[in-house]
Specification:
mainly alpha; 166 residues; flat; Sec-independent protein translocase protein TatB; translocation; cell inner membrane; protein transmembrane transporter activity
Length: 166
């Protein structure tokens, strides 16, 4: 890059003062400053766009890796489920043929437990529905409830009779 020190900037300024003249120098300096600002903004926008593109590519790669992992997990789970079903059917195959012992009756145990006890409902001490803030805004607007106080000038401007224009 170009190394611009104080001495080089002073030399450029003196040459510009001699070549352009003292009358036009401020206008030229403003124009050059504006062009440099536009160039810097353009470079910043290009950098931001490149960064967004890179981040988008990284997100796409992460999405693909997550989808690949999800597919692998899904195949493992389905294989495990198939193994479980096969083993379950082998274990329960011997139980289906022998119906000598009836299933135990747990209804007496459930009746002894009883129903659950819930705490008694207590009504709140304040009736919160009577507060003005509990009324919805759409209901206030429909019923014509004033929500804001109007100043005298605002009231005159709002309720002034309309005159017919000629």
């Amino acid at each position: 890059m170009i190394d611009l020190g104080i001495s080089k900037l002073a030399l450029i300024g003196v040459v510009a003062l001699v070549v352009i003249g003292p009358e036009k120098l401020p206008r030229v300096a403003r124009t050059v400053g504006a062009l440099l600002g536009k160039a810097q903004r353009y470079v910043a926008e290009v950098k931001a766009e490149v960064n967004r593109t890179i981040e988008l590519e990284e997100l796409k790669r992460m999405k693909e890796s997550v989808e690949k992992t999800a597919r692998e997990v899904e195949t493992q789970v389905s294989a495990t489920a198939a193994d479980f079903e096969r083993e379950w059917s082998q274990v329960t195959a011997g139980l289906e043929g022998s119906a000598a012992s009836p299933a135990p009756d747990y209804s007496a145990d459930l009746a002894a437990i009883g129903s659950p006890v819930y705490p008694e409902y207590k009504r709140p001490k304040k009736n919160f529905r009577l507060k003005r803030q509990a009324v919805p805004q759409w209901y206030k607007a429909r019923a014509g409830v004033r929500r804001h106080a109007l100043s005298g000038a605002a009231r005159v401007a709002r309720y002034r009779p309309r005159t017919l224009s000629r």
